[in-house]
UniProtKB/TrEMBL annotation:
Region (Disordered), start-end ranges: 45-67
UniProt protein name: Secreted protein
């Protein structure tokens, strides 16, 4: 019985440590991912201007405001 409790506690400890490591790693990487997304967005907008010949505005959150 003690062995079963020990295995269960070890499993829970592993989950907690994994969650902490993943959270810290994600927090450190979030700025890099935002920078990459911004660069991709600017590149996409540049291609849209080339294809359509005029500024192309996209309101990405426009459909979220309708209730």
């Amino acid at each position: 019985m003690i062995a079963l409790v020990a295995v269960a506690l070890a499993g829970l400890a592993t989950l907690v440590v994994s969650a902490i490591v993943i959270g810290v790693t994600d927090r450190r990487q979030s700025e890099a991912w935002r920078r990459i997304a911004e660069q991709r967005r600017r590149e996409w907008e540049r291609r849209q201007r080339q294809l359509h010949g005029r500024p192309h505005h996209v309101d990405a959150w426009g459909d979220e405001d309708t209730d």
